[in-house]
Amino acid sequence: MEIGLNHYLVLSTILFTIGLVGVMRRKNLLLLFFATEILLNSVNIAFAAISHYYGDLTGQMFAFFVIAIAASEVAVGLGLLIVWFKRHGNINLDTMSSMRG
Amino acid sequence: MEKYLYIALFAPLVSSLFGALFTATPKKQFVGIIASLLIFLAFLSSTVLLVHILNGGEVVHVEMMTWMATGDLYIPFGFVVDQVSVTMMMVVTLVSTVVHIYSIGYMDHDAGFNRFFSWLSAFVFSMMVLVMSDNFAGLFIGWEGVGLCSWGLIGFWFHKEVATWAANEAFIMNRIADLGMLIGIFLVYWNTGTLQYDGAFAAMPSLDTATLTWIGIFLFIGAMGKSAQFPLHTWLADAMEGPTPVSALIHAATMVTAGVYLVVRSNELYDLIPNVGLFIASLGAFVAMFAASMALVNRDMKRIIAYSTLSQLGYMFVAAGLGAYWVALFHLMAHAFFKALLFLGAGNVMHAMHDELDPFKMGGLKKPMKWTFIMMTLASVALAGIYPFAGFFSKDLILEVAFVENHYIIYTVLLLTAGLTAFYSFRLIALIFHGEERYKLFGIDPHEAYKFMLVGMSPLLLLAIIAGSFKLSYFEMVTNVLPELEYHIHHPVIFWTITIGTQLFVIAAIIFAYKKYANANIKVPDGTSAMENSIAYKVLKNQYYIPYAYEEYIVKPYRELSTVFWQHVDLKIVDATVDGIANIVYSTGEKTRDMQSGNLSTMLRWMVAGTVGLLSLAVVFGLAVRHSDEIVTILSGLGV
Amino acid sequence: MFEAIAFYLFAFLTIAMFYITVTTSQALYALTALAAGMIFISAFFFILGADFLGAVQIIVYTGAVMAIYAFGMMFFDTTRDVKEKQGNKFIIVGLSTFAAILVVLIFAVPMISTNMTAFYPVVEAAGNTQNVGMVLFTKYLIPFEVAAVMLLVAMVAGIVLAGKKMDLSLTLMSGDEVEEMKKNQDKRIIS
Asked: What is the mean pLDDT of residues C97-114?
């Protein structure tokens, strides 16, 4: 059967939801980062699909930049995570609540 | 001439403000002296104005400044000195000066000396505003002002609960009556478009009788409160809790006569509605008899004199109600003099007897207190209406008026009351000054008052004796404003029979009183004698049980109602609502505070929830935009 | 037909991998599943004709990013199972389902306009890489350069945050100072 844009968008939505579940559920900060990666990837699929079905290269450009940004985000994030781990000895979210209101 | 008006008006205010500077400091003699001097200055200005008016001078009318000028309503602060108001001014300032001088001696040992003079002068100022104002609004300002100062002065010794209760009673009763007066003033404005006396009275003949009747009734209700007519009379007897100079000034000469002044000032109105006038006269006669009966058995010296005032106010209203306004005003003037004198003399007696009020515990005081004895006796003679003292000319005139107008019932009532008046006045004199010296049983050593107080009282004595001779010149002056009605009994036989008959009746009453109370067998009644246990005595002693009825049937239910409103409406509904609103704000904050737990997981969940919310909004709006036509059709069908 | 089979296959695989990532209790399994998922996503890119993007996905994401994560995991004590105090499951699942439904609604219901024009249309004659190059270096030049600067900054940040002894700079010290430092180090080891 014909695969249309809607199929890709539904797929992207499902992956996005999985990512959301992970973001809400995970208590270990590193695993939280993994869920964030899932979110970004699902969005990339959506961009690429739209770009293909409308014959526009804008979507691919966006996906490209999203990848670049995700990479740098991982670098900085992990750096911070290492510093925190050296100071506190664990990276459990429930212990990181010093900014409470 | 205007400057005399302003001096007479504002000198008491200056005195009051000056005294107010010292209310928190201990007694300073000069406060009393300066206050008395300023009031004396007001008296002199009033005298100048009186001479000016007597000599046919022009009425002094000033408009000091505009108070309200909004739309059609124009009320200025205006003052007029015409024949009626100059009479009142004279009376007020004269009695006030005497009372101020007297108070320097009477309040000698009181800690609130300065405060007393401040209140007293403020009262004089309010009374001056009342009598000098040229419109109903200014009258009302003065009306309220004298009510307030009366409250402050009755409750002067505020640590005594009886005094504060009496002050509240006086003020509240006055307020109830003021509601009626306000309605009357509103009706005047509504129907005539102005509150100025000349404008309003000029427009009144063109109004229909029903409206005029209502206006007259409502204004009289206000007068009823101020002049303590039945049923708003109970405050006057209780007001004797205040210091005696207060009773002399306020409850004899000035405040209680404000009601009479109002009726006299509105004579053009009351001439148009003679039925209301007849009602006023009947009520006045009833009050005269009613008060005199209560004074017969009373054992409180000041209360007897207070009932006497009430009775004489009834006389004044009879005169005013029957259309003889100048007679009412004349009796007001004469009464002010001898009643104030009586009160001040009673003050002397009280001071000598260490605040003892029961005349049965006194007796034989004419030896140590000779001058007070002379003054009080002469004042009582004037009150009884014996020729040639002042009372004869005013009281007998009222009796003549009643007779000539063919109101024989009123005439009989007033005649009997005259006899009762003589009886109880001389009962009081006999018990205090004659007979055995019962005060020795109680170990009291009386002495006469200070010399300067006696000297201060002497102008009143003089006027009580000679005021009758002013009748003719007074008549000529005042009938420029008031209706000129000569009450002449044409048949000389009837005239002389009535006059001499009245005199004999009064003298007989005096002799009877002397015989009963001036002999040496009087003992202090202790509740066991047959007369004391008779029903008539009990009814009269308890003031016909009217204060009891007020307390039981009006005050207590009202208090219960207030408690219900407080506990069930105010606390549970109003307060709960306000507290509830504050609580909502507070609890909302408390609950949303958990959003800031610092826990990243929770915050992430909130983020997703927010995203979901925004997505929902996007869906809703998108659908609305898509189907906007159908939505408009549905809404217009619903009538939006 | 092949397209359909490929699509469904890879879709199933991707969803399964990512599901493992978010639900497993062992960090190492999560990492492995994530890497696998990335590869399958690049397959999608190839199906959609975005060759360059697919290649970049494999190199950068699966290669570089996953490697960083792997190195990062070496710092943390990952032999222990991640004990997680479960939050309210219903909130999580409920919210996510609701969000999914909403997004599908937005996409599936034809609310998107139907006459869109392409900003940067594909030139049919050239291949995908050439097309990407043409657009990237002309229309998207400035974002490209800025992204380069951003990557530089991220790299420096990563080094600074994770490195040791960052106050010394060997290149800026003279030769004598380096010798002295080495001697001091030896001394410390001996004593």
From this structure: 71
Whether C176 has a pLDDT exceeding 70, the answer reads yes
Interface residue A43 vs chain C (CB under 8 A): no
Cross-chain Cβ contact B618/C106 below 8 Å:
yes
∠ CA(A55), CA(A57), CA(A58), 5° rounding?
Answer: 120
Question: Mind telling me how many Å the CA of C101 is from chain A's nearest CA?
Answer: 9
Please report where in the chains the tokens 């097309």 appear, as a residue.
C131
Residue C173 has pLDDT above 80, yes or no: no
pLDDT at res. B47:
92
What pTM value is reported for the model? 0.69
Give residue B508's Cα distance to chain centre: 34
Are B396 and B313 within 8 A, CB to CB? no
Find the radius of gyration of the CA atoms of chain B: 32
What are the structure tokens assigned to B151, written together? 């409250």
Task: Give alpha helix (H) positions in A1-101.
Answer: 5-25, 29-54, 58-88
Check residue B443 and give its pLDDT: 75
With cut-offs at 50, 70 and 90, classify the pLDDT of residue C82: low
- For residues B478 and B83, the answer to whether their CB atoms sit within 8 Å is yes
* A23 in contact with chain B, both atoms CB, cutoff 8 A: yes
Do A81 and C72 touch, CB atoms closer than 8 A?
Answer: yes
**pLDDT of C170 higher than 70:** no
Integer CA distances (angstroms), B636 to B622, B626, B630, B633, B640, in order: 21, 18, 10, 5, 6
ipTM for the predicted complex comes to 0.90
* pLDDT value, residue B393: 84
Q: Judge: C99–B615 Cβ closer than 8 Å, yes or no.
A: yes
Distance CA B137, CA B182 (A): 9
- CB under 8 Å to B341, separation ≥6 — which residues? B375, B376, B379, B457, B460, B461, B464
- Take residue B139 and report the two structure tokens written for it: 């009258």
Yes or no, beta carbons of A31 and C75 under 8 Å apart: no
Which helix (H) or strand (E) is B78 found in, with range?
Answer: strand B73-81
CA pseudo-torsion sign C81, C84, C85, C91: negative
Residue pairs between chains A and C whose CB atoms are closer than 8 Å: 212
- Look up residue B445 and give its two tokens: 């050593």
Residue B103 token pair: 């108070």
Cα radius of gyration rounded to whole Å, chain C: 25
DSSP string, C34-90: HHHHHHHHHHHHHHTT-HHHHHHIIIIIIIIIHHHHHHHHHHS--SS--------HH
Cross-chain residue pair C105–B619, CB shorter than 8 Å:
yes
Q: How many residues does chain B have?
A: 640
Q: How far apart are the first and last CA of chain C?
A: 75
Instruction: Mark yes or no for CB contact C22/A74 under 8 Å.
Output: no
Distance CA B187, CA B204 (A): 11
State how far the Cα of B125 lies from the Cα of B119, in Å rounded to an integer.
10
How close is the nearest chain C Cα to the Cα of B615, in Å?
7
Phi-psi region of C30 (alpha: psi -120 to 50; beta: other; left: phi over 0): alpha
Distance CA B267, CA B287 (A): 21
Q: Kindly state whether A80 is in contact with chain B, defined as any CB-CB distance less than 8 angstroms.
A: no
From start to end of C72-123, where are the E strands? Answer: none
Cβ–Cβ contact A77 with C under 8 A: no
CA dihedral B537, B543, B545, B551 (to 10 degrees): -150
**Considering only CB atoms, which chain A residues are within 8 Å of B600?**
29, 32, 93, 96
Q: 10-residue block means of pLDDT along chain B (640 residues)?
A: 88 93 87 92 92 83 85 86 89 92 88 91 93 92 92 91 91 91 93 88 88 91 86 86 88 82 89 89 91 87 90 91 88 90 90 83 83 89 85 85 84 90 90 81 78 85 81 77 70 81 86 80 67 76 82 88 87 85 86 79 84 87 82 79
Q: How many residues does chain C have?
A: 191
